[in-house]
Every structure is written in structure tokens, then in C-alpha cells.
Amino acid sequence: MADDEALENHYRFTPSIDLYSVLEALEIxxxxxxxxxxxxxxxxxxxxxxxxxxxxxxARMIRIEILxxxxxxATDPETRLERVADSLxxxxxxxxxxxxxxxxx
Length: 105
Description:
This protein has helices spanning about 20-25, 75-90, and strands at about 5-15, 30-35, 35-40, 45-55, 60-70, 95-100, 105. The chain is α+β, with helices and mostly antiparallel strands. The protein has a single domain, classed as 2-Layer Sandwich (TATA-Binding Protein), CATH 3.30.310. Strands 1, 2, 3, 4, 5, 6 and 7 form a seven-stranded antiparallel sheet that branches.
């Protein structure tokens, strides 16, 4: 990873989204870990996506964490997170809101 700090953001979708369908529609490779968690590859970044309200098939709130991204990447992690969230929202026409529980570790 470009630096040792993991970056994550929390998002709320209105209405809820079906992450399975959205990831498939966007042709984003992913591996389901549990009914509430998947690992995805988006724009050379490895992401941990966890649903904090709902399930992967009916997600109202999610946490997206960048686990790894290319060293020397031109795009900073925050911008990468925004691109992922915007892509999910655009594909579903859902409203997206950045949650106040965001944190940088």
C-alpha cells in the first residue's frame, strides 16, 4: 500500500441498494465473505465492503475500507473511496450520504 494507514468511509444509501447486483453490473470483481461483507477489486484497489445496516442484498449503510492500492498511485485514497461510492450510487440511482462515523486509522 502507498502508506501504512487504512482509510475508510461510511455511507448511507436511500433507498437501500443490492450490492450483489450493483457490483455485477459494474463488472467489479468481488468475493463474498459473509452475508454482510465482501472483498472487491476496484481500479487496482482492494476494498473491504461491510454492510452495517442490512445485508449485501439490501444495504442501507456500508463501510468501505481500502486494504491496498498501488504504490505511487496518482489518485489519493480519499478520492478512490469517493469514486467507489459514486459508482455504486450512479449505478442504482440511489442517494448517497457520507456518514459522520468516518474515521482514518
